[in-house]
From TrEMBL:
Bilayer-crossing regions: 97-118, 138-158, 178-198, 236-257
Superkingdom of the source species: Eukaryota
Record region (Disordered): 317-464
GO biological process, one term: lipid biosynthetic process
Name of the protein this chain belongs to: Fatty acid hydroxylase domain-containing protein
Keyword field: Membrane, Transmembrane, Transmembrane helix
One GO CC term on file: membrane
Alphabetized InterPro entries for the sequence: Fatty_acid_hydroxylase, Sterol_Desaturase_Related
């Protein structure tokens, strides 16, 4: 038992830290092609007491203890923390410390893996080292360190001014103080696993992914500096892991230990290599395929419970992952995938996209998918390509005819109120209401196909109604003398 702990100390494999893969990896297979063991809740609980012995948490805990003892918080009434929740003096004292610790640790991983060749099994064999991408990741990561220092400043201000109770480090010699210290060491990594899954899963909802989390997923082939490369809003979600300290009687060491874990752990888990002591193929699959493995390696049982667990590469990547361009799109990937060839993007109210007569569309500028039919002067032909230079961008049909086709009446209908337009804009920005939107890809595909099958009769009826309305309007105009009767008859 003791020899096993020594050989696996700090997450090492057989006492080695580099050029050695985890025990489940088959070296005869390409990197990432080995099957990850299925994580269980029982295994997570059994590993809890050993979380500081046989995992990389050992190194991070030692760094946290050294920081707390060598550079402790100044929580006196006259200290920089007591002056304001966001104090320039506090930032001047703590920000260089955090930048030095984070940059030194992450740069070590980057240099040993990408410059000095300490590892030999990258997930993407033909990977390209791009300094511009590294600089991009570095800038956004530094913003995360600044935001964390702000979190730390708020907590220190509450402690220094007496607004929030805490356990002083001088009480560690007592039984209660020692219990707080040990509880912080053991529970912070476990709490981090649970919080990361749910915060991460929420960031993959369409609106948040499109505007926030897509920045992190621009790195399809990860490297250490990409671990903390996040949008500032995502940093707020990420560092919210420390908020339980507002409700529980904790020690300042728990906050600092949480910060060390939050800032340092992403570096190695985004290494992009399989053969080192902090390798994380589990999270690499998430960056490769996006919609899987939302939890960390230790709490993978949560992905098993929620049906998002992936244990190996897809069949197309089993012979080795190929390079992929960085995902620069800022919009969420829709579950339905690309539209069928018989559909084109047009400008039309949201109610046309919903395909119902419920009314309350998405405004004159909202985009939707409508079936292409031959003979429509306002739409490209079904055989043509809507994206080719010969086909101009479709601007939609006239407003009166559009309202008739939508089944909401003629041109005499009252204009929608400002509140209705606001609701329509919200639907346009965030998609259909949940009750009307098919949730699965197969359901959406079937809906598109069903519209194509039964749409011919409906479109013919709409055309007849539009023609009748046009004829009636022209006839009425002739009777009123607005147009000559001969023109109205034509």
């Amino acid at each position: 038992m003791l020899s096993t702990l020594i050989r696996g100390f700090a997450g090492a494999t057989d006492g080695r830290f580099y050029r050695v893969s985890p025990s489940f990896v088959d070296s005869a297979l390409p990197p990432g092609a080995s099957v990850i063991p299925r994580p269980t809740f029982a295994a997570w609980l059994r590993a809890g007491p050993l979380v500081l012995i046989n995992t990389p948490n050992t190194i991070w805990a030692l760094i946290a203890v050294c920081m707390f003892e060598c550079v402790p918080y100044d929580l006196s009434r006259t200290g920089p923390a007591a002056s304001a929740p966001l104090s320039a003096a506090f930032f001047a004292a703590r920000l260089p410390l955090w930048l030095g610790v984070w940059l030194g640790y992450t740069l070590w991983w980057h240099a040993t893996l990408h410059w000095f060749g300490f590892a030999e099994r990258p997930f993407v064999a033909a990977r390209e080292y791009r300094p511009g991408r590294v600089a991009h990741n570095l800038v956004w990561s530094v913003s995360g360190v600044v935001i964390w220092t702000g979190f730390e400043n708020v907590f220190a201000y509450l402690w220094a001014t007496g607004r929030l109770a805490y356990v002083d480090e001088t009480a560690w010699s007592s039984r209660r103080g020692a219990l707080h210290f040990c509880a912080a060491l053991l529970l912070v990594p476990l709490w981090r696993d649970v919080h990361f899954f749910f915060a991460h899963r929420m960031l993959h909802f369409n609106a948040l992914y499109a505007q926030v989390h897509s920045l992190h997923h621009r790195n399809t082939d990860v490297e250490p500096f990409s671990g903390l490369c996040m949008h500032p809003v995502e940093h707020l979600y990420y560092f919210a892991c420390a908020l339980p300290s507002l409700l529980l009687l904790t020690t300042p060491f728990a906050l600092l230990w949480n910060g060390v874990h939050l800032l340092l752990s992403p570096g190695a888990s985004h290494s992009g290599f399989e053969d080192h002591w902090q390798a994380d193929a589990y999270h690499y699959f998430h960056h490769r395929y996006v919609s899987c493995n939302y939890a960390g390696t230790d709490a993978g049982f949560l992905d098993v419970w929620f049906g998002s667990f992936v244990d190996t590469l897809k069949p197309t990547d089993q012979k080795g992952c190929k390079p992929r361009p960085d995902a620069k799109a800022t919009r969420a990937r829709t579950r339905a995938g690309p539209p069928p060839a018989a559909y084109r993007e047009t400008r039309s109210p949201m109610r046309m996209r919903l395909g119902s007569a419920r009314g309350g569309g998405g405004g004159r500028g909202s985009r939707c998918l409508r079936p292409v039919r031959a003979g429509d002067p306002h739409l490209p032909s079904a055989s043509g390509d809507a994206d080719s230079p010969s086909q101009p961008r479709v601007r939609g049909v006239p407003r009166a005819e559009r309202r008739v086709r939508a089944g909401v009446g003629g041109g005499g209908e009252r204009r929608r109120s400002g509140r209705a337009r606001c609701r329509a804009a919200t639907r346009s920005a965030f998609g259909r209401p949940r009750g009307l939107r098919p949730r699965r890809r197969s359901q959406r595909r079937d809906r598109h196909h069903a519209l194509g099958r039964r749409g011919a009769e409906g479109r013919a009826a709409q055309d007849r109604a539009a023609a009748g309305l046009r004829h009636a309007l022209l006839q009425r105009a002739g009777e009123l003398g607005v147009l000559p009767r001969a023109a109205a008859a034509r």
